[in-house]
Specification:
Elements: E1 6-7, H1 15-29, E2 35-41, H2 45-60, E3 63-65, E4 74-79, H3 84-95, H4 98-103, E5 108-113, H5 119-128, E6 134-135, H6 144-154, E7 157-159, E8 181-185, E9 187-188, H7 199-203, E10 207-208, H8 211-223, E11 228-232, H9 249-257, E12 264-268, H10 277-285, E13 292-294, H11 302-307, H12 314-327, E14 332-339, H13 346-359, E15 363-368, H14 386-409, E16 415-423, E17 430-434, E18 439-442, E19 452-461, E20 464-469
Parallel strand pairs: 1-7, 2-3, 2-4, 4-5, 5-6, 6-7, 8-11, 11-12, 13-14, 14-15, 18-20
Antiparallel strand pairs: 9-10, 16-17, 16-19, 17-18, 19-20
Helix pairs in contact: 1-6, 9-10, 10-12, 13-14
């Protein structure tokens, strides 16, 4: 049992030497038994990718990754800061760990991720959650072994505040969830500064990975049997802008698409202001890139889009969609929508309704505007009540459900190539995914997981698709 005090930490460069040093300390000074770690990740795919790296580091230090918090020697909370609801949920879950820490004072509780890049949130955790031993942000992931070692050796709390290290560290070990799909980050950070978004402030400016590192990682994953690669970035369309090499996202897609075999390439997220005809042409001509583009439009009102600092108009967006539908057979589009941006009127919201009717999105990710302190939109007048915004959101969901229902209905009795991903939660069926990113239930044994199969849709209703192998 130890008391906690703050300590400053110096940065070391070689993550692998840090891992070995940490492992050596544990082997020599800790109880001789299997050590367990829990990594809980909240938020987007980029956070999930970070969580896989943190799990990989822990595993290389000798910890077994488990789900049961009661048995854990380390519990790591990897946080999200995009919406207030997510932060409230995270704080609630951190608070619930107090009783575990009381029963096992030597347990290390660490909090990291986007939320811990905000000074106010760090101070809140320091003062209100004294049982948290370690706090570090997205820029300090490579220092994780060193930070854990400092907690173990010094028996004191460790806080990393305002680490501005924006280098890209290659070679960090990764423990991936499953062996069918894999995340491959191609860039970090964001330069767009949309007026509602906290991401550039917590993730930093755009930094692109070298194309040879991305291609090499992808090739190794495909050789290991992975069937779907998800390329990640806050705005993948701006990939390559800060590199010495003359390369853009379209060219990177070409290189990854060139590998032989049956596999899929997806990417997220794609900003409309940087979506080019070249990128669409590459998708249309490719063998492996899914005919599904996630292209967030956020709002159907040009005035609101300008206030959001999105730097495109709905007419520009529709031009992109028109070109993409012309070039890509069976194109599927998904998008993000924010309802109730400060100052948005009901008439402007109806422009969004009209917009989704015009585009016919396969699916939408919908959100009520969440104020984020530090963003420009935070100080804008916001006279519309939460209840009224909720009514708008429900109206939007009903409109999209009608569109999705027709899309699903049109799939009935048609054949599709699907990737079998996992067994469903009920245990009775397998879950497979279409090229258009829709989930389908099929019958079969676990030996089908990780295989591509041709299926016929035998049931389509609401958000449910069922198919049989043909």
């Amino acid at each position: 049992m130890f008391k906690t005090k703050e300590i400053a930490v110096d940065c070391q460069k070689d993550i692998h030497s840090k891992i070995l040093k940490n492992k050596d300390y544990i082997d020599k000074n800790e109880e001789k038994r299997v050590k367990f770690a829990v990594v809980k990740t909240y938020g987007c795919q980029q956070n999930a990718s970070d969580g896989e790296k943190l799990s990989g580091i822990l595993e290389n230090m000798g910890y077994s990754i488990i789900e049961n918090e009661e048995k854990a020697d380390i519990i790591l909370i990897n946080t999200c800061a995009v919406r207030q609801h997510a932060e409230n949920r995270i704080f609630g879950n951190i608070g619930a760990l107090k009783s575990l820490k009381k029963r096992n004072p030597n347990m290390i509780i660490a909090v990291c991720g986007c939320m811990t890049e905000q000074k106010e949130e760090i101070e809140k955790i320091k003062k209100s959650y004294p049982f948290v031993d370690l706090i570090f942000g997205t820029h300090s992931l490579n220092r994780f072994p060193e930070l854990i070692l400092n907690v173990l050796e010094n028996k004191k709390r460790v806080f990393i505040d305002n680490d501005q290290d924006e280098k890209i560290y290659e070679g960090i070990p990764v423990k991936r969830k499953g062996n069918v799909k894999a995340f491959v980050p191609i860039m970090y950070g964001c330069d767009n500064y949309c007026s509602y978004c906290i991401v550039p402030y917590v993730r930093g400016r755009e930094r692109s990975r070298k194309p040879e590192d991305i291609v090499s990682e992808t090739q190794k994953l495909l050789s290991a049997g992975y069937k779907e690669i998800m390329l990640l970035g806050q705005n993948v369309n701006s990939y390559g802008k800060n590199l010495d090499e003359d390369i853009n996202f379209a060219e990177l897609l070409r290189r990854i698409d060139s590998f032989p075999g049956e596999y899929r390439i997806r990417f997220m997220s794609s900003h409309p202001k940087d979506a080019t005809h070249e990128m669409i042409d590459v998708i249309a001509e490719s063998k492996h890139i899914c005919r599904n583009i996630h292209l967030p439009f956020q709002c159907g009102s040009n005035r609101v889009l300008k206030e959001m600092n999105r730097r495109y108009t709905k007419e520009k967006y529709l031009d992109i969609v028109k070109y993409a539908k012309k070039k890509i057979k069976d194109l599927s589009l998904s998008s993000d929508v924010i309802v109730g941006f400060p100052g948005e009127t009901y008439e402007e919201f109806k422009e969004t309704l009209s917009f989704i009717e015009q585009v016919k999105f396969t699916s939408l990710f919908t959100f009520i505007y969440s104020p984020r302190k530090g963003t420009r939109a935070f100080s804008l007048p916001d006279p519309i009540s939460k209840n009224e915004k909720t009514m708008w959101l429900n109206e939007l969901l009903r409109a999209q459900e009608k569109i999705s229902f027709k899309i699903y209905e049109n799939m009935l009795r048609k054949n599709f190539r699907v990737l079998v991903e996992s067994r469903g939660e009920n245990g009775n069926t397998l879950l497979a995914r279409t090229d258009s990113n829709l989930t389908m239930e099929i019958e079969g044994g676990d030996e089908l997981i990780g295989q591509f199969k041709n299926v016929e849709v035998i049931y389509a209703s609401g958000r449910t698709l069922k198919g049989k192998i043909v």
